[in-house]
Amino acid sequence: IQTxxxxxxxxxxxxxxxxxxxxxxxxxxxxxxxxVANSNGGVSRVAKTTALRTWGSGPAGGVAATSHxxxxxxxxxxxxxxxxxxxxxxxxxxDGRWEYDVQPVILxxxxxxxxxxxxxxxxxxxxxxxxxxxxxxxxxxxxxxxxVGTLKREADGACAATVDRSALCEAQTP
Length: 174
Description:
Low-confidence stretches: 140-148, 163-174
Largest sheet: 4 strands, antiparallel
Order of helices and strands: HEEHEEEEEEEEEEEEH
Helix content: 25-40%
Mean pLDDT: 77
Oligomer: single chain
Distance between the termini: 55 Å
Structural class: alpha+beta
Strand content: 25-35%
């Protein structure tokens, strides 16, 4: 029921916007259907799109592209990385395929629809961080420093990311 309630709340505004964009494209002479990216890595026409299916669709498009390139280059494994303004989303691709979460949590609500299995780090292009008392602190007033870290896949399939705090400290040393 959470899925239906959340989608009912989000969908009207999004669908009005998408239909308006489609109308403007038609008025400008564009004759193909407007396709909307979905969180499962696919696309759909405006009439078949629901708001929740677009949640996380940006990184999903990058994962679909990574999968295509990995298959084309015969790479057995690849890592899709989407760096946004405040976070970085990661997804492992094995043999051209990615994993799905079938009941992800969106806005603190467990929803019933498949989405790409993404791991997120709270570090994006607009993230500014520093080390204070051996802890990583984020905030807009902090001077920018480079971030060094590692990413690995655990035996249970989980993604684990670590930040090299010594590298952060060295970056702040004049």
